[in-house]
């Protein structure tokens, strides 16, 4: 049974409260919050004030996915806003090890996200310091994209790397997760499924979460 993290990027921004309560009352485990800056990715979403506001109603951990350049400038602000897991992209972190240490020193779990073109082998030397690897199965920036099939191979390699080291790192898959491919993604090694479109475009989002949880 995987950890299910609905991506609020696909929620109704005109009525966030209603969607937060839906997640609170569902089988979901975390809230996945996508922060984009229009520089690292070609889209802009929301930042600390919205996350802090959501925190007042949310009853489950905040899994905050930073798709921004120079993420280290904002670690403290995201901790204050309510992030429980803070994920930075490998591609914007020349000092990844330092970033992981700072995130943890602020009381959060530390995640690293990798783009589809970034090989998992680049994480070898810091794997034991990472709480969660977010394997991007689409190019980051938008919800509702198609799952990139090559991700399957990356998941298997990453799973082997984690097992070989006896690490407790969680594998999260982000992008294009559907009711059709979720079972295979879990079988290939995913511990956490992010789902935006699959949850929020469903006629009954809580049912979609329940179905994902049952795989
Ligand atoms: C994409 C984001 C994802 C996105 C997933 O850049 O990181 O979290 O919301 O959306 P779906 O599940 O619709 O592909
Ligand atoms: Zn995400």
Description:
By secondary structure, the chain is an alpha/beta fold. The protein has a single domain (3-213), classed as TIM Barrel. The protein contains eight helices and eight strands; from the N terminus they run βαβαβαβαββαβαβαα. The chain has helices at residues 16-24, 48-55, 75-81, 96-105, 151-165, 182-187, 197-200, 205-214, and strands at residues 3-6, 31-36, 62-67, 85-89, 109-114, 132-136, 170-174, 192-195. The chain has an eight-stranded parallel beta sheet with strand order 1-8-7-6-5-4-3-2. α2 links the parallel β2 (31-36) and β3. α2 runs parallel beside α3. The longest helix has 15 residues, at 151-165. The radius of gyration is 16 Å and the shape is globular. The termini are close together. The mean pLDDT is 98. It binds D-xylitol-5-phosphate and zinc ion. The site of zinc ion has 6 residues, from β2. Residues 7, 32, 34, 65, 174, 194 line the site of zinc ion (ZN).
